[in-house]
Specification:
Catalyzes the phosphorylation of the 3'-hydroxyl group of dephosphocoenzyme A to form coenzyme A. Pathway: Cofactor biosynthesis; coenzyme A biosynthesis; CoA from (R)-pantothenate: step 5/5. The protein has about 200 residues and is of the alpha/beta class. It has 9 helices and 5 strands, in the order βαβααααββαααβα. The protein has 2 domains: about 1-25 and about 110-198, Rossmann fold; about 30-105, no CATH class. The longest helix has 28 residues, at about 75-105. The termini are close together. The protein binds adenosine-5'-diphosphate. Adenosine-5'-diphosphate binds near residues 12 and 15.
Length: about 200
């Protein structure tokens, strides 16, 4: 089974393209979703997070208080690394399990929708790297308009990601999403043909 890495900056349209690939019949593994799943109530990572960052990162029901954790984990590099050392191995394990499930179901390719694919070097494990590309100002405009985010918040998050040049350099395929959503159809069709030819 081939692994197709799908990435792009926040607001570039990854989820939109992932949805189209799902419609074309490909299983999609969403990295953001994996990161949420490993800290669902009852997951082993939660006890480790409580031990590392304090019991009050969990509420009375045992659910993660994300804001409290963030206020302790994102204070410096050392604490951020501590957080990552707890969650990352579990995220990798769950990703491998989701890939194995897709393969067992007979998929010829799985789409790995991963915002930080290039930043974390996971692009090297992919058979094809697809970058959804949109100019920064248009991404800010879409996220403010469609998702109601504050422009300053969007710009701060964009600044934490790879710049577009670095991301494009890692791409095997670039999907240009500067135009209308309808302009994605032909590009996704070409991508499907490319995946089938792998
Ligand atoms: P990502 O998953 O990369 O953050 P999304 O697919 O959620 O991006 O797209 C960000 C927002 O922009 C969504 O509200 C989406 O509906 C909208 N969007 C995506 N592509 C286009 C487009 N070509 N034109 C206008 N809006 C778009």
């Amino acid at each position: 089974m081939k692994i197709i890495g799908l990435t792009g900056g926040i607001g570039s349209g990854k989820s939109t393209v992932a949805g189209m690939l799902a419609d074309a019949g490909y299983p999609v593994v969403d990295a953001d979703r994996l990161a949420r799943d490993v800290v669902e109530p009852g997951q082993p990572a939660l006890a480790e997070l409580a031990a590392a960052f304090g019991d009050d990162v969990l509420d009375d029901t045992g659910a993660l208080r994300r804001g409290v954790l963030a206020s302790r984990a994102f204070v410096d590099k050392q604490h951020t690394e501590l957080l990552n050392s707890i969650t990352h191995p579990r995220i990798q394990e769950l990703r491998r399990r989701r890939f194995a499930e897709a393969e067992a179901a007979g998929a010829e390719a799985v789409i790995y929708d991963m915002p930080l694919l290039v930043e974390q070097g996971a692009d090297r494990e992919c058979d094809l790297v697809v970058v959804v590309d949109v100019e920064v100002e248009e991404r800010v405009r879409r996220l403010v308009e469609h998702r109601g985010l504050a422009a300053a918040d969007v710009r701060r998050r964009i600044a934490q990601q790879s710049d577009d040049e670095t991301r494009r350099a890692a791409a095997d395929v670039i999907i240009d999403n500067n135009g209308a959503v309808s302009a994605l159809d032909a590009q996704v069709q070409d991508l499907v043909a490319r995946i089938q030819g792998l």
